[in-house]
Task: inverse folding
């Protein structure tokens, strides 16, 4: 083994260890967002050790440097694929299908002699197993493109490595079928092999980090835009949305209806049952309203116990129907808080935007209509006369 190979083997181990430790730390810090960090830790360590052992075959040919080394590499790729596929949020196969290539690798090579005579069979099985794994996870990541474009970053290194393994598989198979003797791993120059795996590990880990970073950024944006109790948009974002819809109305004549409603006797709920019960009521109302509105509607918490629903390209009659449906849903779904059953109702104001109307004007009109609903006895929907 020359000096360059020894240095590369050491660098490979350090790289795998650093990547593994990085994922272990990230999985501890961001438990909810990076639940598969521990899997990627195991995958990096296993693959790194397996590749390093493989490079020792020219010096020490035994069961550890041959069979165990191949198993560690295939096992590492298996765990890597299992962990990385979760970032693409695609449908994952059951564990038996994931570990089938590793099982085939172990069963096919466990009883082969640990010398050059077994190289053709070992090479065919190894390249087939790693090729299938790499290509499969690449395809899985590509299937996630419709949801998040950055997942393509994950697919590229795996697809490239999968193609290389299949090419090597075809080469070995062609030589073997022609009666020739494929170049065995005892006579291989392992420098390109080590370089290839180092580049693969580096790109795969960097790609996964990129996707995780994008996920964290999206989560932070969601936290900044949403009200944490109700799950709706906060006041700043919902008013910005309203401003955008008003521009569309003026420029493109895209009609807009607006619903403003207020939970009836909310102060009484806080005073009698406590603020925790009030928070539970807000969460209950938020979940119920989100189940009633359409995908095109936008729901937000306007302030305190007041909520707003924006309905683009919707007539006031359709908005009235949604308001009435939401009112009935609230009336028929009391809050279950411990052993208590707390009735909930709301008063609604509904209006559509008029030509030339400002944001302040439409908000003032629906607020007055909501106040009229309160004055009319609460638990009702009020429209402009």
Result:
């Amino acid at each position: 083994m020359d000096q360059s190979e020894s240095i590369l083997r050491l660098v490979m181990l350090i790289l795998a260890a650093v990547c593994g430790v990085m994922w272990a730390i990230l999985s501890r810090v961001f438990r909810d967002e990076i639940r598969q960090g521990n899997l990627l830790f195991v995958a990096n360590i296993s693959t790194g050790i397996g590749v390093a052992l493989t490079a020792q075959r020219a010096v020490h040919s035994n069961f550890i440097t041959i069979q165990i080394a191949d198993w560690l590499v295939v096992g590492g790729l298996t765990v890597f694929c299992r962990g990385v596929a979760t970032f693409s949020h695609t449908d994952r196969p059951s564990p038996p299908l994931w570990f089938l290539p590793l099982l085939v690798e172990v069963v096919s090579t466990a009883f082969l002699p640990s010398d050059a005579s077994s190289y053709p069979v070992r090479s065919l099985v190894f390249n087939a197993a790693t090729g299938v794994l790499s290509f499969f996870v690449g395809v899985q990541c590509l299937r996630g493109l419709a949801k998040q474009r950055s997942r393509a970053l994950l697919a590229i290194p795996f697809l490239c490595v999968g193609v290389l393994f299949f090419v090597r598989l075809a080469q070995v198979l062609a030589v073997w079928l022609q009666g020739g003797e494929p170049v065995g791993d005892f006579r291989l120059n392992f420098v390109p092999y080590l370089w290839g795996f180092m580049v693969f590990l580096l790109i795969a880990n960097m790609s996964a980090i990129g996707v995780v970073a994008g996920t964290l950024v999206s989560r932070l944006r969601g936290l900044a835009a949403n009200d944490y109790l109700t799950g709706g948009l906060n006041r700043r974002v919902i008013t910005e949305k309203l401003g955008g819809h008003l521009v569309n109305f003026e420029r493109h004549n895209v009609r807009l209806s607006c619903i403003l409603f207020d939970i009836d006797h909310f102060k009484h709920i806080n005073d009698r049952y406590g603020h925790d019960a009030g928070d539970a009521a807000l969460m209950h109302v938020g979940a119920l309203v989100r189940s009633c509105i359409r995908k095109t509607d936008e729901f937000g918490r306007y302030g305190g116990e007041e909520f707003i629903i924006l309905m683009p390209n919707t007539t006031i009659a359709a908005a009235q129907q949604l308001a009435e449906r939401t009112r009935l849903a609230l009336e028929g779904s009391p809050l279950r808080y411990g052993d208590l059953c707390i009735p909930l109702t709301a008063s609604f104001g509904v209006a559509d935007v008029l030509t030339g109307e400002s944001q302040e004007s439409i908000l003032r009109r629906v607020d007055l209509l909501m106040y009229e609903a309160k004055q009319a006895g609460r638990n009702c929907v009020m429209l402009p006369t």
In short: The first helix runs from residue 3 to 29. The chain has two domains: 3-225, 235-382.
